[in-house]
């Protein structure tokens, strides 16, 4: 080693680090990597000053350093070997330089050179990788190699490096445990060495990033459950190490809950949402760390926006849980099946027994106080499918609470699309609650509420900008009227004497349903008001269904006037015919509405006969 | 529609001995891989030597002497005229210029005074049309606005200088007007010269602000919007037809803001280093796991048609089948640019 005072070497190294950290945009426009190149030059100088690398390849066979070498390179070490003595110490110092050179080359988009340096770093450290002195650097080098290989789209290689880091961390914590040296300390004078606490913090941060990178890798490998698990762990660690911004953390947890909802894992979803609530409530108490994004001057706005967004995540939780229950308990005409309900009730006990064991396996946020706060929120919400009206109503009320909260931010003037989605969710909550309601009048009232909240939306919206949403609402209103009509008919059925009042009501509902189905169908016409020859794929099924229902509705208009009745039957037949004809011309449509097509064909053959009988009857009187 | 345009070599490129490896053949642009080309074996590998890409239009603008040369006018005749005809029919049109810094986006969109580009020509076209079709005086109205998006913040480039510091505009949705930028100034223009003046003013504003924050203007997107309102007769009643032309000059593609690595996450398998992007990773996970459910459609059975006169049993939740809705909600992470251009 050349006779240069150690202090000078350290100074050079620190200068190199400082240059490395200069933001790219501070460099001249045509030379964005200028500071990096300067840093590199300094690092090379330090390397030269440290002298040649020690030879230690004689003990091991010429193992390649890539992960393809099997267990050797990435396998776990058998024992902890401390780098003692001048040779080992030099190796470690060189390893630090190689690491920084590697990262430097990667930053300047020279991946091959970067890889070379990082691999050299690993080779120098391999024997000592489980030691207190070297583990952090080793893991960081492997992580950077993982990122490098991901850029080359060799994701399995990246996975191998990152999993190796993960395993190494676990082994270290088990067998050694004390906070390891941070690589930056190598070239710092004694008095500037870090505290145990600081070392621990930095090491844990490295591991958190390790988990985060693995989450991304699993996502690319389409191992989605695993990816979610690692995202979940990353979030958990951010909490544990106080390295988070409440608003950002809360919205991430709420977003993760949506993944779980899509997978029907309601317990996990509930946990994420409850945690989101608790952490969001911490806003203002915790200061931002270096990992958090800036939002100057926009924080109040962002706060309200995120609050509204978390509320919407909750709405989806309540809605999906209720709908899932409906799915498992409905019969083939969409009514509550009592047998299925009993089955599920019996299952419930088993579900409750298993609860503890499932909970233990899941990733839990927080300890102590935080854990209690989250549990307090969880206790108020069920994660099990509701089996009767009472249970459904609880979820409904919670969902409705969050609807109001969401609407505070997502007002129609400013957030049209979002506002409407929230209203649609509200309507859906009513609809699914109606499924559980046994009394028909009360069910009617629920549909009436839905119509009341949806109808005003169609008036104000500019159809040019909000075409899809308009169609959705029209279709939904029409269907609500349709359901209401059927309910009124059933109610009238049970009365001995259906009076003219209820008949009028039924006809009015029929008319309203027709109106909205017609509006929906009209929205499909081109600017010249011509109905399309070929209906687009995205609206094909709804369009066919609309036609089908229109046909049925005409057939259900109650009138004493025989001439009118005949007219209605004729119109009904016309629409059934349209469906049959269209499906003949467009076989792909036939696939979309198999059931309705069958029924339409039946009606097309039955109705003419019926109409003929009617005409004969009319002629006779 | 996608068009590609090839520019001449720059002074620096010529000095460094750069060679043109692009070739245009009708609607196909071919790129020659020089490294493969130089290998001695002539056969077997010819596929990899040249890669071909198809476009709707290919413009060769390397040498003005070349008979194949595509001038500003040629580009305008294809793309610009299409914009104009669409606008006349009431459509909203969006024109993007995409490419690295120095690839010639500004030349194509704006051009030097001696040979103006698409934007000035389109404006000119609008004014000419107005003169032609105007039997009534104010039958067309043209307003322009010019905004810049940098780091997801929107700035009005035509704001009267009263503020020292540029402030951020909010992007909102209005039931009647659709998505809009709140507070964005719109300027009525009645002739071509006014338009050019405003364009130059806006561009100057971009550059000034850029030097102020040490960023190259190549990092931001700029959108020049022309609002074109025509008086028409609809069902024999006087009415208005409004269309919008959005001319977008995208940021240099190589200089995407490092703290916004969205592109890097979605393309290829790149891993993002910073935990700042955790939210995006989770959003993507949630998004991919989404199930589109037809509006409350849970089964596909339906109650039978039934005879009229016989009151049949209630159908409860018969099949929905309305235009689909999502089962979950992903908190909003779309970029401002995407949102603003939603309606065109």
Question: What's the arrangement of secondary structure elements?
Answer:
The complex is a heterodimer of chains A (621) and B (344).
Chain A: H1 6-21, H2 34-50, H3 71-74, H4 86-107, H5 111-125, H6 135-151, H7 155-175, H8 196-220, H9 224-240, H10 246-262, H11 266-280, H12 299-329, H13 338-361, H14 368-379, H15 389-409, H16 416-436, H17 440-460, H18 467-494, H19 500-522, H20 537-555, H21 562-585, H22 587-592, H23 594-620
Chain B: E1 3-6, H1 11-15, E2 22-25, E3 28-32, H2 34-37, H3 46-49, E4 50-54, E5 57-60, H4 72-88, E6 93-97, H5 105-109, H6 118-133, E7 140-150, E8 153-156, E9 170-174, E10 178-182, E11 187-188, H7 192-212, E12 221-234, E13 237-249, H8 262-266, H9 278-288, E14 292-293, E15 325-326, H10 336-340
Parallel strand pairs in B: 1-5, 6-13
Antiparallel strand pairs in B: 2-3, 3-4, 7-8, 7-11, 7-12, 9-10, 12-13, 14-15
Helix pairs in contact in B: 4-6
Give structural notes.
The complex is a heterodimer of chains A (621) and B (344). Chain A contains 23 helices and no strands. Chain A is an all-alpha fold. Chain A has 4 domains: 81-242, Tetratricopeptide repeat domain (Serine Threonine Protein Phosphatase 5, Tetratricopeptide repeat, Alpha Horseshoe), CATH 1.25.40; 245-284 and 301-331 and 364-437, no CATH class; 459-529; 531-620. The longest helix of chain A has 31 residues, at 299-329. Chain A is elongated. The relative contact order of chain A is 0.04. Chain B is α+β, with helices and mostly antiparallel strands. Chain B is 27% helix and 25% strand. In chain B, helix 4 (72-88) packs across helix 6. Chain A: It is found in: Cytoplasm, Cytoskeleton. Chain A: Residues 54-65 have a biased composition (Acidic residues).
Search tags:
heterodimer; A: 621 residues; mainly alpha; Serine Threonine Protein Phosphatase 5, Tetratricopeptide repeat; 71% helix; B: alpha+beta; Kinesin; six-stranded mixed sheet; 15 strands
